Amino acid sequence: MAKGQANKLTGAVGEFLVAAELCRRGLLATPFAGNVPHYDIIASGQSGGHVAVQVKAINGHAWQFDIQKFLDVQMDGERQVLGAPRQEPFPELMCVLVVLKKTGQDRFFILEWKELQNLVVRDYTGYLSKNNFVRPRKPGSFHMALAISDVEPFENEWRKILDRVPSTLIEQLQNG
After folding, report:
1. pLDDT tens digits, one per residue of 84-100
2. 85: closest CA among 114, 54, 112, 63?
3. Residue 169's domain spans which residues?
4. What digits encode the pLDDT tens for the residues 106-140?
5. In angstroms, rounded to a whole number, what is the distance separating the alpha carbons of residues 71 and 66?
6. Residue 164 phi, psi (nearest 5)
7. d(CA 158, CA 31)
8. What distances in angstroms separate CA 99 from CA 65, 82, 95, 158, one per listed residue?
9. I need a labelling partner for 82 at 20 to 30 A (CA). Which of 112, 141, 162, 163 fits?
10. How far is residue 24's CA from residue 97's CA, in Å, rounded to a whole number?
11. The predicted structure's pLDDT at residue 71
């Protein structure tokens, strides 16, 4: 299978798995299959309220990101100058990072977009600082990888999404 097609299938499987998990937890979840720029799923409570969810799925050991989606980066010759963090692309965006395994063994890591941003920026800054902010092989590259071990504290933290979307009228009234 071509790499591009395999990546599309990985992404689609991840989105549908996350939507299914949200439905199992009492939310109505609709995936958009890449047609919306900043999120993949809208999850709604049965009596109103919703949250946008971005899904990133992998078959391997690390998620691949472009640091420029999280941080302003300028070039000074071959040296990268890290600037201000970027604004969240969609208000209160939630992210679910998925590791696809055998059926029923998939792993889910739930983070607020800002938490993901903090991890990505921390790791990228640490990597660059070891080399005086010059990437050794490709100075102009803004690629970075986030390892599974970096997000393990966020595994199965579905409450982060559920707490934002009251699923019943009683919960909605209690949360005020």
Report:
1. 999 999 999 999 999 99
2. 114
3. 3-174
4. 999 999 999 999 999 999 999 999 999 999 999 99
5. 9
6. -90, -15
7. 17
8. 15, 29, 13, 15
9. 112
10. 18
11. 96
Closest CA to 92 of 114, 118, 124, 60: 114
Phi/psi at 167 (nearest 5 deg)? -95, -10
Residue 8 has a pLDDT of: 86
Residue with tokens 């990505």: 120
CATH number assigned to the domain comprising residue 105: 3.40.1350.10
Model-level pTM? 0.90
Total domains in the chain come to: 1
| pLDDT of amino acid 70 | 98
Helix segments in the chain, DSSP class H: 3-24, 113-129, 148-151, 159-162, 169-174
Q: Is there a contact between 160 and 112 (Cβ–Cβ < 8 Å)?
A: yes
What does the angle CA 159 – CA 90 – CA 10 come to, to the nearest 5 degrees? 70
Residue type (1 letter), 115: E
Q: How many residues comprise the chain?
A: 176
Task: Please give the pLDDT value at position 110.
Answer: 98
Q: Are 108 and 116 in contact (CB under 8 A)?
A: no
Residue 163: φ, ψ to 5°: -70, -20
Amino acid at 9: L
* Sign of the C-alpha dihedral computed for residues 164, 169, 171 and 172 taken in this order: positive
pLDDT at residue 91 in the model: 94
